[in-house]
Amino acid sequence: MVSCAPFSSPDLNKHVMQDHHSITLLLNALEQQLRQQQLWQNEPPAQRALASQQPFAIDTLLPHAWLQWLFLPQMRRRIASGIALPKGFEMTPYFEEVWQGQSERQPLLAVLKQIESECGHA
């Protein structure tokens, strides 16, 4: 009988740290793309806009604003706090739809796909 031993605590911590490091690099790349494409906002939206219950806050925020003010901070807080990152999510189809025909958004979409991929198997 073959036994598959679970990660020991140091191995698990190392694995999580590597995952968090690669996700952090991708989050930084996402921020860089938002800035390069002049989508980065200096002023936060109203608090009620951030409190939307709709997916991607479609009723209160532009797509890039959701990335900047909700997605990036939430992911960075989870990493800083050592909280598990979400697994197996998809957000790229939404952004492909809203940025359809905007070829300049392809670098943003590429980073989003990398984030999804990394979180899918992390």
From TrEMBL:
Signal peptide: none
GO annotation terms (biological process): single-species biofilm formation
Gene3D superfamilies per the UniProt record, alphabetical: YqcC-like
Domain of life (superkingdom): Bacteria
Segments forming domain YqcC-like: 24-116
InterPro entries linked: UCP006257, YqcC-like_dom, YqcC-like_sf
Entry-linked PANTHER family: CYTOPLASMIC PROTEIN, CYTOPLASMIC PROTEIN-RELATED
Protein name: YqcC-like domain-containing protein
Species: Vibrio quintilis
